[in-house]
Amino acid sequence: MTMLRVAATLSALAMLAGCGGGMTESEKVNKANDELGKKIAADWQAVPGVAAVRYEYRHSVSTQAIGLDAALKPETASDALVQELIEIVKRDYWQSATDLVFSAAIYRSNELPDGPTQDKSTIMFNGPIKIDMYDKAQVAELNAKYGPKPEKK
Fold first, then answer.
1. Domain assignments of the chain as residue spans, ordered by start
2. Which of 49, 68, 100, 116 could bridge to 64 as Cys pair (CB 3.0-4.6 Å)?
3. Which CATH class is domain 24-146?
4. What is the pLDDT of residues 21-74, one digit of tens each?
5. Cβ proximity of 86 and 68 under 8 Å
6. d(C-alpha 114, C-alpha 56), whole Å
């Protein structure tokens, strides 16, 4: 009987040690996705001509998404700069082991609006950044540019 209690106690301690200190799979995914959002925001902020950046990682049972906003200095704002920011999202996503969707709002302004803007003339891009894993041409293009996408762990 004593050996059985010792075995049961050791088993219980092993289970507690295994689940008490580590993150759940969901928490690991959320952390990786949030870290990707931070990386993209930092990469955007480092681009000359970008005045301000913010990001938000949103997750629910069915969706994981990163929303990005950028304000481009009016004197340097251009379609080429918008495309550079979109390409950064694709690159950083492709080099990560994450699987989520992106949307962005990019403004010609020295600062980000506090909420939805009524001044449509400042909006340079507003919508999803499309990365389609089923589009063989896009996958081939991203593989050629950035190497194979790491698999989720």
1. 24-146
2. 100
3. alpha beta
4. 588 888 888 899 999 999 999 999 999 999 999 999 999 888 899 999 999 999
5. no
6. 14
